[in-house]
User: Fold this.
Amino acid sequence: MNTPTDTYKHKGQRRKLASSLLLKNITDINVLNAIEVVPRHFFLPKDFEERAYEDNALPIDEEQTISQPYTVAFQTQSLNIKPGDKVLEIGTGSGYQAAILASMGAHVYTIERIEKLYNKAKKILCTYKNVHCFMGDGSMGLPENSPFDKIIVTAAAPKIPDSLINQLKIGGKAIIPVGDLKNQKMILINKTDENTFTEKNLGDFRFVPLIGKEAWK
Ligand code: SAH
Assistant:
């Protein structure tokens, strides 16, 4: 596989994409900077490289998708990511969201259930020293590496998996699209105490399904 190059044209396209996200209410400067820095075209199949900086979800292998840049930015902004945060991502997919988190200084633990996607993403993500890749069912989280400051789920769950709440630190936040297979509500969770958390509905989104023991079968 040839390593793609990152050109001035790509950088210009990223700057434009970041400006368009600002107009859509992405105001966290660290998120916008990450969008400007991370070469999204590295994470896409060659055929879609040209379209990497459109604000659209695009197909990756195995009938999965790389999330729309707006969605990546929205989920990241909602978690209020700080350098040093220990973040669990469920659904590595292309690896783009993990790279955004890593470039913001987070320590990222990302898990993917499809081996082919895991292998591909791992090759790019190994260039980030603060990303750890895992393969398996992430619907039960990653107990051996818990607790986490933040948890981001990038696939649609039928309900909030209990394991994820258990693996969140007190004061931690999780963001997870919950609903049926067609439409989901983006739910932001704040863990306020060992056994209590609040839920906030941040609006409608659409993701590929989270498949696993605490998710769709
Ligand atoms: N964050 C990704 C978007 C991935 S799409 C990106 O930036 O590209 C959702 C991904 O979740 C798919 O790759 C899918 O295979 C994966 N997935 C679905 N159920 C999962 C599970 N239980 N554990 C881990 N990954 C899962």
User: Anything to note?
Assistant: The mean pLDDT is 97. The pocket of S-adenosyl-L-homocysteine is lined by residues 64-67, 90-91, 93-94, 96-97, 111-114, 117, 137-139, 154-155, 208, 210-212, 215 (CB under 6 Å). The radius of gyration is 16 Å.
